[in-house]
Amino acid sequence: MDIQEIRLEQLDPDKFIAEKTEEISSILGDGLAINALSGGVDSSVVTLLGHKALGDRLKTFFIDSGLMRDGEPEHIVALFKDLGVKVELFNAQQTFFGALKGRTDPEEKREAITSSFYREVFGDLVKETGAKYLLQGTNYTDIEETVAGIKRQHNILEQLGIDPEKMYGYKVIEPLIQLRKSSIRLVGKALGLPEEIYNRPPFPGPALAARVIGETTPERVETVRGATKIVEEELSESGAFQYLAILHEDRVVGIREGKRDFGLQIEVRCWESTDAVTGSPTRLPYDVLDRLAERITSEVPGVVSVTYNITKKPPSTIEAV
Ligand code: XMP
Q1: Which of 74, 38, 69 is nearest to 233 (CA)?
Q2: Which of 111, 151, 267 maximizes ligand 1 atoms within 8 Å of its Cβ, making it the mutation to test the pocket?
Q3: Which of 109, 111, 176, 318 for mutating ligand 1's site (highest number of atoms within 8 Å of CB)?
Q4: What burial letters (b/e) apply to 113-123, b meaning 16+ CB within 10 Å?
Q5: Exposed, middle or buried, 181 (CB in 10 Å: 0-12/13-18/19+)?
Q6: At 119, phi and psi to the nearest 5?
Q7: 235 and 243 in contact (C-beta within 8 Å)?
């Protein structure tokens, strides 16, 4: 890999911010750029860096793919409004669910999401706004894992031989490409992001589609969204690196109201990790697991079974897709 990593102990966040804002303004000149904010650490840091460098010449969109968590689009738009950044909510649910329809293979699902983002949604937004550049928060780990062939991260283009200008009609600027997550958090703090954002657990670009095994339909996303809300409420104080719910494809026999119910299975994962490259399951107290099972089976329609993942990464990965 010819990208030079800046390690945590080498990072001076203020100097990094000054250099990157300078670099972004000099690349752009007086041109326009767009970026997509998901509210995750990486895209939030890029949004503030970009606005510092370009002000109103950066148009920021929240792409509502239909795959985000409960209430997330509105919450993030409001939070950035308080930080003085205007974010436009762009409804692209039909595009994403259309591209995901009938797809069950994990890499095909990731490819469908990548092309919905870059070709359909950004292709149109670039034309509409007249922007020449897309600013995005690709980080060092994303590149490393994609190049190693572990999993195609949704935002990797050039390292897979994709020329975004030829393929989609715009260039990409990736100011965070030399940093890993813990360094990006420090830059976010130095930029004045609230702790809720700079310390947020990671969330994948393909969003809840990374947590639905099998076909990603609006109904199946609704199921995993309900379980995710409970897992996040119950585990937010756990101190873990990341915690999530996965909807399985197989059904299992359960009992509901005294009758047989051929129902859905949710798998809970909770990870100890520093950089997402390796991880191990958190040794959660049994009463926490008990409460998770109780709440998910009673509050999420159709779920009759809840399991807890006890596998390390590797051989597991953090997400299921
Ligand atoms: P895996 O599942 O590969 O995940 O062990 C490693 C870390 O990356 C997140 N993740 C993604 N992040 N785009 C992203 O921006 C993606 O396509 C993607 N897939 C996984 C995952 O949540 C974990 O923190």
Answers
A1: 69
A2: 151
A3: 318
A4: bbbbbbebbbb
A5: buried
A6: -85, -55
A7: yes
Q: Which residue has the tokens 């998910």?
A: 296
Atom nearest to 150 CA in ligand 1: 3
Residue nearest to ligand 1 atom 4, measured at CA: 318
Residue 31: CB partners within 8 Å, gap ≥ 6? Answer: 57, 131, 132, 133
Residue 261 three-state SS? strand
Cα(145) to ligand 1 centroid in Å equals 9
Whole-number Cα distances in Å, 8 to 40, 74, 186: 19, 33, 9
- Do the beta carbons of residue 42 and residue 219 sit within 8 Å? no
* Exposed/middle/buried for residue 205 (C-beta within 10 Å: 0-12, 13-18, 19+): buried
Digits of tens for pLDDT over the chain (321 positions)? 689 999 999 999 999 999 999 999 999 999 999 999 999 999 999 999 999 999 999 999 999 999 999 999 999 999 999 999 999 999 999 999 999 999 999 999 999 999 999 999 998 999 999 999 999 999 998 888 787 777 777 787 777 778 889 888 899 999 999 999 999 999 999 999 999 999 999 999 899 999 999 999 999 999 999 999 999 999 999 999 999 999 999 999 999 989 999 999 999 999 999 888 899 999 999 999 999 999 999 999 999 999 999 999 999 999 999
Position in ligand 1 atom list of the atom nearest CA 181: 24
Asked whether the beta carbons of 34 and 129 are under 8 A apart, the reply is: yes
The answer to whether 163 and 172 are in contact (CB under 8 A) is no
First to last CA, the chain: 25
The SS3 assignment for 115 reads helix
Contact yes or no for 62/38 (Cβ under 8 A): yes
DSSP element (H, E) containing 303: strand 303-308
